[in-house]
Amino acid sequence: MAISPLKAMNGERVVVLIFVLRVLSSLPLALLPHALSLSLLSLFSLVVEIRVDNSPSLFKTRPGASSGIILGAVTLPTVMLSKLIQLSRAVSLQQIEIGELEHMTMQFWAASACSCGVLILLFIVTWCAANKKNPHFSCSVWDAKFSLSCVILYSAVCCISLATISHTGFNTALKLLWLLCHGFATVKLIQHLLSTFPFCASIGEANLVTSGLVLYFGDMLACTISKVCRLLIPPELVSIRYGIKRSEIGIVIQGVLLGLLIFSAVFKFLIHLWEYFWGANNSESRERKEIWRSLIFLTSLGFIMIAVAPSWMMIVLDFDVHPVPWIFQFIFSEPFKRLSLCIYWLVLIYASVLRFYNISKNSKIERILLRKYYHLLAVLMFLPTLIYQPKFLDLAFGAALAVFLVLEIIRVWRIWPLGQLVHQFMSAFTDHRDSDLIIVSHFSLLLGCALPIWMSSGFNDRPLTPFAGILSLGIGDTMASMVGHKYGVLRWSKTGKKTIEGTAAGITSVLAACSVLLPLLASTGYFLTQHWFPIFIAVTTSGLLEAYTTQLDNAFIPLVFYSLLCL
Questions:
Q1: Using an 8 Å Cβ cutoff, are 287 and 491 in contact?
Q2: From its phi and psi, is residue 108 left (phi > 0), alpha (psi between -120 and 50) or beta?
Q3: pLDDT digits (tens, 9 = 90+) for 294-309
Q4: Model confidence pLDDT, tens digit, residues 250-288
Q5: Residue ranges per domain, the chain?
Q6: Percent helix, strand, coil in the chain (nearest 5)?
Q7: DSSP string covering 495-555, please?
Q8: Can you tell me where the transmembrane regions are (predicted)?
Q9: Which single residue of 76, 191, 403, 442 could bond 111 by disulfide (Cβ 3.0 to 4.6 Å)?
Q10: Rounded to 5 degrees, what angle do the CA atoms 398, 188, 124 make?
């Protein structure tokens, strides 16, 4: 039975389409193919979401959340397109080289290919399930024709766009193959994620995570392949160039994350190997086996992070020195300011964690409300640092992410002696969106604040963009929750908990923060080019998305807000 378009459009879908239309309306004519591809991707994802939501449960997704397919599919491509718009302004002003714009173009198409691959997978799964249940289901035939048309037209636009930035047909073919690899890798990864961590994420959240991982580590792989080709193949035979000039802090963060990825795979292999050869010997006590596992963990972690990852950074990305002494040199280049910030952070974290941990164990305050205090803590920690020490904050975010990842590995694998302690401590701050398998809230808050800052490195003519995560999560989301919980009466929907009063408070608080922040930035030397009307549209759209979405708002809201502030 067909569903009318009006009945299919819920609040979340309407806000997402408004978000996409706002970005499309700001595009220059040179990016018209990108606009067409994003429009096709949005329509395709809308059809797939409607089909999935009206089909029996085919995936083990997070209870209480919608599928979020359209939001998960368009977020990363729209972020890349907003960045392309910003870089187009820089090219017209001759402030960056054309190679940087071409690199971002490839990132846009790679993000789109990741989303398109997942959408094709979802459509095939629902198509097969519908035909198995009712072979004469005519609506599925119409959906198939429409979806196939979107995919074919999208592919044609992609080929034309890549041909315009490629010097030869061989380069175009290589780029198309690279995009196909992105789509295939994302499909395999999201299948693995949803099966390994059942009921931990919605489809949209899984799509965002897997697309982001494939995009980020695919960039590393492309840099590695390009470097190897330049070392082994004479340039007169094949010339393969990839990437842009990266900041030293960006290289360090990439190296650390690559090292942790390699470590996870190596540690799992070593544990299986150890259990195969020595696990059958049950004469050893359990405590002794745990100690051996801990020694393997520490040894492999230390070797990879001290030897393997730095070697990759120095060989592939031409980093001049070992990153460990470079980090110390960077910190002590301004010792008073940066060490003072470290002490300030440690005092805030210690006092807040100790206080809130005791409250969480002894109080009946809702977990979701209690965790908003950590959003306020993020404002106190990151806002002053972003204004006065932005480069140091870049590095600090990378270090915090690495620590979080190591602690999560320790918790999941129950590495002696900290595994159980970390699990008990982290469980005190979880809510319905977390599970015992994986706890994502602290990652989403950290990355929600960090990603807009990292993506704003290099050319940035919109001074509010680095603050997108801190403003939307630390101020807007927090005020919306607190005001809505205490004073909220009028609800956006009959089944949801979000209130109109809370949303209004969130939007108003972010606008007030912007009104204070803009003069402060001007006083520190920023050249202000943002006007109030685009800021108002960005704040309102992200606030409405927070009100309607049932997805993990820490992940999506900062990226949406960042995209709109780039325009």
A1: no
A2: alpha
A3: 888 899 999 999 999 9
A4: 889 999 999 998 998 888 888 888 777 765 555 556 777
A5: 8-244
A6: 75, 0, 25
A7: S---BHHHHHHHHHHHHHHHHHHHHHHHHTT------HHHHHHHHHHHHHHHHH--S-HHH
A8: 106-130, 151-170, 253-274, 295-316, 336-357, 369-389, 395-416, 437-455, 467-484, 504-526
A9: 76
A10: 130
